[in-house]
Structure formats: structure tokens, C-alpha cells
Amino acid sequence: MTVAFTFLLGQDGGSGVSGGFTTLAIFIVFIVVLYFALIRPTQKQRKQHDQLVRSINKGDTVMTAGGIYGTVTKVKDDYIMLEIARKTEVKLSRGSIAKREIEAGAAEEAPGSNEEESEES
Questions:
Q1: How many Å apart are CA 91 and CA 75, to the nearest integer?
Q2: Which residues contact 13 (CB under 8 A, 6 or more apart)?
Q3: Are strands 61-64 and 97-100 parallel, antiparallel or unpaired?
């Protein structure tokens, strides 16, 4: 049965040395693909999030990981105070910030945000 199975796979059933190198090469290719498909993008996202968390300042409008929008009123080393409604503040871990919202004035000044420029392109 083993001989018939190896024949179907195109192996000669010989010493197995070349089969060992082939298996090793496939394993190495699998590890490289896994690294570039899963591990590297995750590291890149984590680095971007860490940079975002470090750059949060008082007055920034942010969204938390839970989907709550608010304005940062106080920034400390390991937490921030977020005003989510008038006279309503919550204390959050800095890591719970998901993204920073672009202020209305900053969006108008940003290059490429002008409708006239996009129509000319």
C-alpha cells in the first residue's frame, strides 16, 4: 500500500534524502509566508497604535475602543480623562483609544480635501 501511495505522489520510495530537503523547503516557505501575511502586519498596527497613544494631547477629540467619542481633558502617564458629555468625565486607560478624530478646521486645511482640487484631477 505504501509503495502505491508514494507512486501516486511521484516519489520513488528510495532513500528519502531528497524528500527530506523538499519537506524542509516547503516548511521554510510556509514560515516566510506566515510571517509576511500575519506577523508583520500585526507588528506594524501595534506600532501605529502605540504612536497614536503617545501623541494624544489635551483637547483632542478621540474615539475609544468601545465606540465612545469624547474630548481629552487630562493626560497622565497611564490614563486619560475623557469628557463624553457636558460635566461628564470618565477615566480611561491610554491604550483604550482607538483613533483620533480630525477637527473641522484641520480637515479644511489638509491638502487634497478641497473639492475643487479633486474635480481638476
A1: 10
A2: 2, 3, 6, 7
A3: antiparallel
pLDDT at 85: 94
HSE toward the beta carbon, residue 98, CA cutoff 13 A: 8
What is the residue whose three cell numbers read 478621540? 62
The domain over range 57-102 is classified in CATH as 3.30.70.260: no
Using CA atoms, how far apart are residues 86 and 84, in angstroms rounded to an integer? 7
Q: What DSSP character marks residue 119?
A: H
| pLDDT confidence of residue 76 | 92
Q: State the cell numbers at 112.
A: 487634497
The residue to which cell 508514494 is assigned = 6
Please report where in the chains the cell 489635551 appears, as a residue: 58
SS3 label, residue 52: helix
Does pTM surpass 0.85? no
Cβ–Cβ under 8 Å, residues 81 and 72: yes
Any idea where the domains of the chain sit in the sequence? 2-52, 57-102
Q: Is the pLDDT of residue 110 over 60?
A: no
C-alpha torsion angle, residues 111, 117, 118, 121 (rounded to 10): -120
